[in-house]
Amino acid sequence: MHLQFTPEELAFQTEVRTWIAANMPKEVAEESRRSRSSHVSRERLIQWQRILAAKGWLTPNWPKEHGGPGWNSTQKFIFEMEMARADSPYLSSFSLKMVAPVLMKYGSDWQKQRFLPAIARAEELWCQGYSEPGSGSDLASLRTRAVRDGDDYIVNGQKIWTTNAHWADWIFCLVRTSTEGKPQEGISFLLIDMKSPGIKIDPIYLVDGTRTPMRHEVNQVFFDNVRVPAKNRVGEENKGWTYAKYLLEFERGGQAHGPRLRKSLRHLDDLAELWVKDGKPLSTDPAWREKMAALRIEIDAVEMNELAFYSSLKGGDSPGLQASVVKMRGTEVGQKITEMAVEAVGNYAQPFSELRNYDSNVVPVGPGYSDDAAPRYFNQRKTTIFGGSSEVQRNVLAKAMIGL
Ligand SMILES: Cc1cc2nc3c(=O)[nH]c(=O)nc-3n(C[C@H](O)[C@H](O)[C@H](O)COP(=O)(O)OP(=O)(O)OC[C@H]3O[C@@H](n4cnc5c(N)ncnc54)[C@H](O)[C@@H]3O)c2cc1C
Fold first, then answer.
1. pTM to 2 decimals?
2. Which domain range does residue 271 map to?
């Protein structure tokens, strides 16, 4: 399947491609290529985000009144394609695609002025404090407590799986402000400075084996009598569940998966050209070719679905229920690619993992997945869990469609 862009769209694509090639620092692309999930260190992320910000391209999904470039859905899709093609790391979704839309819709004037420009200029990075031990899928059962004390709240409790908490400047946090009524009715949405006294952060190392200090992804965050100004509460007290669900639509539907899937598929094709099975390149093996054909069809379906969906949204619209479909299928097909890579290289899947990731003197033996297929495979298990697991997305859809 080939998308036909108009001459204007092709010109836009050339403009974006040329600009990225000229402006994305080599070290940013290198680090992204070596990482297991196209994520880079804080230093590199800020470096690249500031360059994009200066060009006005850091916030393609923001409405124009908040500094977005005013692109239509095809232009946004082309931009995502070209970013993936150039091995750009993922930008800070927590900042740009999650907390920002919530502040635009529900934030006070002070919050909009204080936080949105700092995000748009890549001066501050955010992390997400939703999940707690025992409160993941059943998020409304969360227990981290915020008690009002004059002009402040005093926060006590624990968050878990907090991605990038070790280098974030701010955390948006769901806290319990009431135990009356339904659990959903006693939650508030607080913006907390990560430098506040009483916050402690412990790393969690994932099954992919990354144990390099500061290169890990997730953490536990403990709050011990943390004082938070009440003006940092978004919207009304005890109405945080509404804002939390709105944010989840952006978490699930804020990312087009198609461009990254295509890029990974190209790596897999390269790998199958190089990898020899029974004296011939794996790419000539009929069983492999059949599986690759099925995978291509699944990627086409994801991409078509995403294109139809994103073109139906106007700038600033929330993704709604369709976000669950996009999240579920995009991540599941992404995992299949990593499964195929492990299948291709078998017990060669994990020879140099940690070294190859972060030491620029270690040269990959082949493109893409050839020498760290297993760590990538393990790392990608997370994608069908975070942001609401695939099972939970299916529940959401079933409930909406057939009222279960
Ligand atoms: C790498 C990683 C990064 C993460 N980053 C963040 C972050 O930055 N911020 C944050 O707040 N959270 C984050 N999370 C947490 C994530 O949102 C939760 O892990 C997720 O919501 C699942 O919750 P849980 O881990 O408590 O599992 P559980 O909710 O205990 O689920 C366990 C299993 O049971 C299934 N299950 C649960 N309920 C149902 C049901 N009703 N019907 C059918 N099946 C069900 C689930 O699908 C899953 O397979 C991250 C998680 C991971 C793994």
1. 0.92
2. 256-402
